[in-house]
C-alpha cells in the first residue's frame, strides 16, 4: 500500500530525512519510534504534504484501488481525497467554523472525488453522531468552532473523529498519545482499534511505548537522525521501553 | 466645500423654524464656517483625507420622494416596525407609525422641536470629546427633518425598530443630513437597527447624526448598518448617553461607501452601566472606512466589552481608533478592547490605534490589535482533510465573519447583515 524509497526531505534548506525506506502493506499497523529530533514528525508531514517541507530525493508510492501514485509533489487536499490522513500532533484551532460544518465539507469533498454519494445534512448528522459515540465525545463538541477552547484530550479525540468520518486507507497518527491522560488514551486507542481493517493501514508515530500497549503494532521501526536504523516486531517497543534508545544508536 | 443655493436654503429653513431652532441653526452655522473642515493635519483625521470628498459643488436634496426600488423591499421586513426617512425627511407612507405598540412613539423631529421639547433642545446642543465639530455643526445648521423616537418607562418593545434612511432620486453631488433622536426611559427594553441605504450609483455626501439617551436600568440593543452606495461618502456620528445600571449592546456595521467615517461615542454617566461596543467593516475595491470610537466612563463600576473586526479585500483601507477614557471617579471599571483584521487583498491597508486614557487607579483595562492574512497552518489543516484551497479560504473567511456577526443577539439584525455580506462576498456562500 505504501512504499517509501530513499526519501530525503527537509525544511528551509535543512535536511531532516536522510534516506528513509519503508514498506507498509494493507491491513498492517506500523509504529515509528525515535528520540526527539529524529525526524518523526517531519516524516508524517511529508506524507501529508505540508507545504513547508521539501522533498529533495526519493519517492512515496501509494497504492489504492490497484492504482499506484507517487505522493511527492501532489497537493495535500488531493492526497487526502485519495485516502491519506494525518492526525496532527498539534491540532489547529479554527474560530468561526463549527466542527460539524468542517466535517461535512471534508466528507463531501472526499465523496465527490471518490465518486460516492454525498450526504445531506440530516443523514450526515446521524453518521457523525455514531462516530462520536465510538470516542465518547460530548454531543456539544460538533457545534463548537473546530478545536477552539478544546482541552488537549478533546483535540486528540477530534482528530480520531475526523479519521472515523473520512475513513482513510492510510492514516498517520503523529504523537496522538502526547498530552493525553490514561483514560483519554484508552478511549482514543479503542477508537483507533475499531478503525483497523484488512484494507487500511495505520502508522503510529510515538515517542513512548505506552500507546503500543493499547494499539498493538505488527512492526516497530526506530527512526534516528533521519534514517530507519532498526525494524522488528512489536517486542522491539518493549525493548526500547526497558533500554532506551542509546543502544540502537551506537 | 461649496453648497449651491446655500443662502436661500438657509433663510427658507430658518424662517420655518421656531425661535429656539432658528437661533440654534444660526449659531451652528457660524461655528461650522469658523471652524472649517478637518484636514490630515488634524490628529483625529491623520489617516483619512477629505480632500477629494469635499472638493465638489454640492446641492442639497430638494425632494423627498422614494424612487421605488426592488432592492428596497429587502430592507423593509414586515416583522419589523419600519421608520423610513427619504433624504432626511420622515416618509409616513412607508413607515409603520400608525400602529405602534404601547409605550412607543415616533414623530418627525421637526414637529417635536417646534413644540419646544426641552430634552431635545438640551441634547442637540451637546458636544462629545469624539465629535468632529465641523460636521456636527453643519448637520445642525442644515438638517431638514429627522425622526424622534421615545420608548416609555418599563415598556418592552418586542419587534425590531428599523430606521431606514434612504437617499433616493438624487443627482450627483447631493448632500443629505439624516438626523435621529432616540430616548429610552427607565427600565425600558428595545432593539433598534438604523440603516443607511441608497441604490443609485452616484456620488453624494451623507452627514448623519444619531443621538440616543438611555435612562437608568434600560436595556437597549442598537445597530448602525451603513450600506450607502459604493460611490458615496458617509460621515456619521452616533452619540449615546447611558444612565446608571443601563445596558447597551451596540454594533456598528460598515459595508457601503467610498469614504466612510464613523464617530461612535458612548458616555457612561451612571454607576454600574454596561456597554458592548462591537463592530465589523467588510470592504473591498478602493473603499476607505475610518472608525473612531469613544467609551467615556465617568462613574464607578461600569463594564465594557469591545470587539471590532475588519475584513479587507482589494485595495481597501481601514482606520480604527478606539479610545477608552476612564475618569478619576470611575473606579472598578472593567474594560476590554480588541481589534482584529483579516486582509484578503495584497494591497489592503490598516492603521489601528488603541488609545486608553485612565485616570482612576483601581481598574481593569485590556486591549489588543491584530492584522493578518489567512493562516497557512489553518489552510493546511483544512486541505489535509480533502478540502481544496479555494474552499478552505472561503470557509476560513466565513469563519472570520461569523465569529463577529454571531455576537449580535437579535436574529432579525443578524439576518439582514448576513444577507448584505453574502452579496458582497458571494465567495463565502457555502
List the helices and strands and how they pair.
The complex is a heterodimer of chains A (250) and B (430).
Chain A: E1 2-11, E2 14-24, E3 29-33, H1 40-48, E4 53-64, E5 67-70, H2 76-81, E6 84-87, H3 99-114, H4 121-134, H5 152-166, E7 170-174, H6 182-194, E8 201-206, E9 219-224, E10 227-232, H7 235-243, H8 246-249
Parallel strand pairs in A: 3-8, 3-9, 6-7, 7-8
Antiparallel strand pairs in A: 1-2, 1-4, 4-5, 9-10
Helix pairs in contact in A: 5-6
Chain B: E1 2-3, H1 6-15, H2 19-35, H3 51-54, E2 57-60, H4 70-75, E3 81-86, E4 89-90, E5 104-108, H5 109-114, H6 118-124, H7 133-142, E6 147-151, E7 161-167, E8 174-176, E9 179-184, E10 189-198, E11 204-214, E12 219-227, E13 233-242, E14 247-254, E15 259-268, E16 274-283, E17 288-297, E18 303-312, E19 317-326, E20 334-343, E21 349-358, E22 364-372, H8 376-383, H9 389-405, H10 411-424
Parallel strand pairs in B: 1-2, 2-8, 3-7, 6-9, 7-10, 8-11, 9-11, 10-12, 11-13, 12-14, 13-15, 14-16, 15-17, 16-18, 17-19, 18-20, 19-21, 20-22
Antiparallel strand pairs in B: 3-4, 5-6
Q: What are the low-pLDDT stretches of chain B, counting only 5+ consecutive residues below 50?
A: none
Biggest interface between protein chains, with counts per chain? A-B, 29 and 25 residues
Low-pLDDT ranges of chain A: none
Secondary structural class of chain A: alpha/beta
Amino acid at each position: 500500500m505504501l512504499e517509501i524509497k530513499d526519501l530525503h526531505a527537509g525544511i528551509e534548506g535543512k535536511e531532516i530525512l536522510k534516506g528513509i525506506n519503508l514498506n507498509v502493506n494493507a491491513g498492517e499497523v506500523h509504529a515509528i519510534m525515535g528520540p526527539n529530533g529524529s525526524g518523526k514528525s517531519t516524516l508524517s508531514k511529508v506524507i501529508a504534504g505540508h507545504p513547508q517541507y521539501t522533498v529533495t530525493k526519493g519517492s512515496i508510492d501509494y497504492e489504492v484501488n490497484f492504482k499506484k501514485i507517487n505522493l511527492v509533489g501532489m497537493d495535500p487536499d488531493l492526497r487526502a481525497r485519495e485516502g491519506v490522513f494525518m492526525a496532527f500532533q498539534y491540532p489547529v484551532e479554527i474560530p468561526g467554523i463549527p466542527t460539524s460544518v468542517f466535517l461535512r465539507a471534508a466528507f463531501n469533498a472526499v465523496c465527490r472525488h471518490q465518486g460516492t454519494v454525498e450526504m445531506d445534512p440530516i443523514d450526515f448528522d446521524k453518521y457523525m453522531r455514531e462516530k462520536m459515540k465510538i470516542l465518547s465525545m460530548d454531543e456539544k463538541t460538533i457545534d463548537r468552532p473546530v478545536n477552539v477552547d478544546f482541552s488537549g484530550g478533546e483535540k486528540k479525540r477530534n482528530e480520531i473523529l475526523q479519521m472515523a468520518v473520512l475513513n482513510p486507507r492510510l492514516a498517520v497518527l503523529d504523537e496522538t498519545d502526547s498530552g493525553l491522560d490514561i483514560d483519554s488514551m484508552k478511549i482514543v486507542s479503542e477508537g483507533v482499534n475499531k478503525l483497523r481493517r484488512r484494507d487500511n493501514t495505520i502508522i503510529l508515530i510515538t515517542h513512548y511505548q505506552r500507546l503500543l500497549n493499547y494499539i498493538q503494532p505488527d512492526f516497530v521501526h526506530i527512526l534516528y537522525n533521519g534514517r530507519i536504523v532498526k525494524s522488528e516486531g512489536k517486542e522491539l517497543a518493549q525493548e526500547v521501553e526497558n533500554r532506551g534508545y542509546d543502544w540502537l544508536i551506537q | 466645500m461649496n453648497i449651491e443655493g446655500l443662502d436661500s436654503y438657509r433663510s427658507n429653513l430658518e424662517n420655518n423654524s421656531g425661535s429656539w431652532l432658528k437661533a440654534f441653526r444660526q449659531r451652528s452655522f457660524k461655528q461650522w464656517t469658523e471652524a472649517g473642515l478637518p484636514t490630515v493635519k488634524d490628529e483625529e483625521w491623520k489617516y483619512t483625507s477629505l480632500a477629494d470628498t469635499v472638493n465638489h459643488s454640492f446641492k442639497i436634496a430638494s425632494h423627498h420622494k422614494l424612487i421605488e426600488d426592488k432592492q428596497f423591499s429587502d430592507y423593509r421586513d414586515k416583522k419589523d416596525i419600519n421608520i423610513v426617512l427619504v433624504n432626511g425627511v420622515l416618509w409616513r407612507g412607508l413607515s409603520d407609525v400608525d400602529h405602534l405598540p404601547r409605550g412607543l412613539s415616533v414623530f418627525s423631529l421637526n414637529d417635536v422641536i417646534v413644540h419646544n421639547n426641552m430634552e431635545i433642545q438640551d441634547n442637540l446642543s451637546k458636544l462629545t470629546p469624539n465629535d468632529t465639530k465641523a460636521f456636527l455643526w453643519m448637520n445642525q445648521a442644515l438638517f431638514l427633518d429627522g425622526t424622534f423616537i421615545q420608548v416609555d418607562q418599563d415598556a418592552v418593545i418586542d419587534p425590531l425598530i428599523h430606521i431606514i434612511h434612504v437617499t433616493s432620486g438624487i443627482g450627483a453631488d447631493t448632500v443629505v443630513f439624516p438626523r435621529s433622536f432616540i430616548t429610552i426611559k427607565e427600565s425600558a427594553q428595545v432593539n433598534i437597527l438604523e440603516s443607511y441605504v441608497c441604490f443609485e450609483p452616484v456620488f453624494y455626501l451623507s452627514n448623519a447624526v444619531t443621538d440616543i439617551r438611555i435612562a437608568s436600568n434600560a436595556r437597549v440593543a442598537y445597530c448602525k448598518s451603513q450600506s450607502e452606495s459604493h460611490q458615496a461618502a458617509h460621515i456619521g456620528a452616533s452619540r449615546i448617553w447611558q444612565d446608571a445600571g443601563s445596558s447597551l449592546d451596540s454594533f456598528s456595521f460598515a459595508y457601503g461607501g467610498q469614504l466612510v467615517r464613523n464617530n461612535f461615542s458612548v458616555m457612561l454617566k451612571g454607576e454600574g452601566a454596561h456597554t458592548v461596543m462591537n463592530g465589523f467593516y467588510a470592504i473591498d475595491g478602493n473603499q476607505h472606512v475610518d472608525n473612531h470610537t469613544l467609551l467615556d466612563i465617568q462613574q464607578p463600576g461600569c463594564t465594557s466589552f469591545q470587539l471590532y473586526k475588519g475584513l479587507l479585500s482589494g485595495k481597501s483601507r481601514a482606520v480604527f481608533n478606539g479610545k477608552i477614557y476612564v475618569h478619576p471617579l470611575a473606579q472598578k471599571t472593567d474594560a476590554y478592547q480588541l481589534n482584529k483584521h483579516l486582509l484578503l487583498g495584497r494591497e489592503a491597508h490598516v492603521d489601528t490605534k488603541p488609545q486608553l486614557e485612565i485616570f482612576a487607579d483601581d481598574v481593569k483595562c485590556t486591549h489588543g490589535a491584530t492584522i493578518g492574512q489567512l493562516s497557512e497552518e489553518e489552510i493546511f489543516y483544512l486541505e489535509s482533510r480533502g478540502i481544496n484551497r479555494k474552499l478552505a479560504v472561503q470557509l476560513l473567511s466565513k469563519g472570520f465573519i461569523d465569529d463577529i456577526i454571531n455576537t449580535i443577539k437579535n436574529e432579525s439584525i443578524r439576518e439582514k447583515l448576513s444577507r448584505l455580506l453574502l452579496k458582497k462576498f458571494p465567495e463565502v456562500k457555502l
